[in-house]
Amino acid sequence: MRPGEWEQLIQSLAGHDAAVRRRKWAPPDRVRTVLVPLIRVFAADMRPDGMLGVTADLRGPNVQGKLSPMQTFPGNRHRVRKIEEWWAWDPWLRLRAELRDGSVLELTVVDRIRYRKVHKTSQSGKYKTKTKTKTVQRVNVSRKLPEGAVTQRPATPPPQWMTVKVRGGAAPGGVGGRPPSEGTVRGGGRTLIRAGAKLMGGGDERALPEQILHVTTELFRWTPPGSATRRTG
Asked: Taking the CB of the first residue and of the last residue of the chain, which one, N or C, has fewer CB atoms within 10 A?
């Protein structure tokens, strides 16, 4: 939908709790904590006739098709009888926005969760089980620039926990006499800038939109101000 149409949906979601009190009809928590803030930020940087597409799978990781087969390992210490382990792969968010400057932004968020169930015997002889989870959230963002836009290597490198790749398009200019970044291809066409990061999940997700936007901001450091402009005519 267009930004104006998304704003109508966001307003409806924001007022849901006041209009509908039954908890079973409430949207999933990620709608309020992650989805709505991201849509508002991306829509604010779009032209009115641009399209914003969102694909969100909010069923959670424990559904058919997202879980791997369970593996069992024998226990060998601290009265551990056996360990059962399985994984969940949950690509729960995809977003595509046509920005005001003519570039196209695409975002994906994937949760990778490891479940580990430990079966052990206590000192008193009782049989106990304990399940632990470890969640890693993979955030990938790409920005395809308008044709002919020139990239410029930032004065400072990205954080160590983030990877950035630049491909195609006009040759980037070095900053401070430094050469273009590795992996950049000189030539015509549209430049594609990708950034990716692994985030530790499993806790309060209210900080997730800010972390996603931190990764997204890196893509805009590779274009000088005013260089990625939409061409008309």
From this structure: C
Cα torsion 58, 64, 67, 72: sign? positive
Give Cα 31 distance to the centre of its chain: 14
Contact at 8 Å (CB) between 131 and 116? yes
Look at the block and give the residue holding tokens 């709505």: 36
pTM, to two decimals: 0.83
d(CA 233, CA 227): 18
Which residues, listed in sequence order, are joined to residue 113 by a DSSP beta bridge? 88, 135
87-114 mean pLDDT: 97
H helix or E strand, kind and range, residue 36: helix 36-44
The secondary structure of residue 24, as a DSSP letter, is G
Evaluate whether 46 touches 7 at the Cβ level (below 8 Å).
no
Q: 73-92 as b/e, with b when 16 or more CB fall inside 10 Å?
A: eeeeeeeeeebeeebbebeb
Confidence of residue 140 (pLDDT cuts 50, 70, 90): very high
